[in-house]
Queue: 2 jobs
Job 1
Amino acid sequence: EQKMYKIVLDLNDVDYISSAGVGALLSGLERAQRHQGDMVLIHPRPTVLELFGLSDLFHFAADAAAATALF
């Protein structure tokens, strides 16, 4: 039996993400995708959203309900 990784990460209290933090998120995303899952980020602040705007690797949703609907 293979596990499916479905990750919803709430960024509401995150003001800054270092390159190491982005690397950790990418590692988590890759692991989820290896297990036929995905990662959805919710509530990003504008400064954090701007950083992720450079990449189309991550999915964003308005809230947890919208995020789980993406799975």
Job 2
Amino acid sequence: VIGDVVNSTARLQSITKNHSQDVLISETAIANLRDPVNVETRLVDRACLRGMSREIGIYALPDEPECDDLI
């Protein structure tokens, strides 16, 4: 399970330049936030990342997210 998280994170990091973003986050990560409604995100793509069997939503975060909202 940890391997899946690390692989997904590496894949997201590798496509940040394609989307002109510093930070990208998956829909799975958003669902696991303490209060996802209060975290501003913007859908930038839906893709099946290499090594994954299903398509996921890929979101951009604001330039300076509040750290407390991400924990």
